[in-house]
Write a structure and sequence with these properties.
Shape: globular
Distance between the termini: 50 Å
Radius of gyration: 21 Å
Oligomer: single chain
Strand content: 15-25%
Largest sheet: 5 strands, mixed
Helix content: 25-40%
Strand order of the largest sheet: 8-14-13-10-11
Number of strands: 14
Structural class: alpha+beta
Length: 295
């Protein structure tokens, strides 16, 4: 019945390095010092004193994803999918505006009857365009990478008949090198624990999520699914991340898988979380009600 809130790095008498700390667990530092802990809510490694761990970690985050409901767009990190106009080539990946990779894979929703697409990227030291037929493009190696700490504009143009174009615009920002280095150090400390790949993926997800790197969080979880894990937590957390970026249909798919595996394992906590997530994801897919006063 553990509700994990942190990962012990080192320094506790009772909790071994690499073990998860549950809500309500009491830290017992060795030699009256501190315990080094990865606090999931903060996505950071902290030095904590003796006491209840979740109180010291200041657990402010909700284990359940914040759903992107159409009439409450301010809840969303960035809404995805052709919700306003199904004929717009809406950017799908990267899943969020803030990224680590300066040469990401770009993908977007298909536009009916489009005969091709043009991708344009403009930013500091970057100004190029490329015509493609599929709905994805690996960042061209011959083009300069996006600069860290600067904003780049990504335009996707759907080519239609009679030289007409349908355009969508998004922005991306590569994380500043100093912040990226801080995250790298945290990740290396977690990797040094030699965790099971599923546990490592979930922990990295919390680090990325806390730093608004939702694309990285989603990708690290997807890798475990490609490896055919049957861990319900992986599927449920991936559903949470999909909800964070407005991909409610994808979230529903992952929550259903989480429910299936949670039942097989008898994991009642993950089952309850996945069921709540599925309900939220289905709710976000309902048609928006129009207020007559807004017409």
């Amino acid at each position: 019945m553990c509700q994990p809130v942190a990962r012990i790095i080192k320094g506790d008498i009772r909790l071994a390095a690499g073990s998860q700390a549950c809500k309500g667990d009491h830290l017992q530092p060795a030699n009256s010092a501190t315990v080094e802990v990865l606090c999931y809510g903060k996505g950071n490694i902290l030095q904590l004193k003796s006491g209840i761990i979740d109180e010291q970690c200041s657990l402010l985050f909700n284990n359940q994803a914040q759903v992107c409901i159409r009439e409450k767009r301010f809840n969303c990190f960035r809404t995805k999918g052709p919700e306003e106009d199904e004929n717009t080539p809406t950017l799908i990946t990267p899943y969020s505006p803030l990224i680590l990779n300066p040469r990401p894979v770009l993908s977007w929703t298909p536009v009916p009857n489009a005969i091709g697409y043009i991708v344009q990227i403009k930013g500091t030291g970057v100004d190029w365009s490329k015509e493609v037929n599929p709905t994805s493009l690996s960042y061209p190696q011959e083009q300069p990478a996006m600069q860290p700490g600067t904003i780049s504009q990504i335009n996707v143009l759907a080519k239609m008949a009679e030289q007409k174009f349908i355009v969508s615009s998004s922005i991306l920002m590569v994380l500043h090198p100093q912040k990226a280095q801080q995250i790298k150090v945290i990740i290396e400390r977690i990797q040094s624990l030699k965790l099971h790949p599923d546990e490592l993926a979930v922990d990295l997800n919390y680090v990325y999520k806390a730093n608004d790197l939702l694309s990285e969080a989603i990708e690290v979880l997807k890798e475990r699914i490609k490896a055919r894990t049957q861990n319900p937590t992986i599927y449920r957390v991936l559903g949470d991340r999909y909800l964070n970026v407005g991909l409610s249909e994808e979230a529903s798919r992952e929550y259903r898988m989480a429910i299936q595996y949670a039942k097989l394992r008898g994991n009642v906590i993950e089952l309850a979380k996945a069921q709540i997530g599925l309900e939220l994801s289905l709710q976000s897919q309902l048609p928006t009600r129009i207020n007559p006063d807004q017409k």
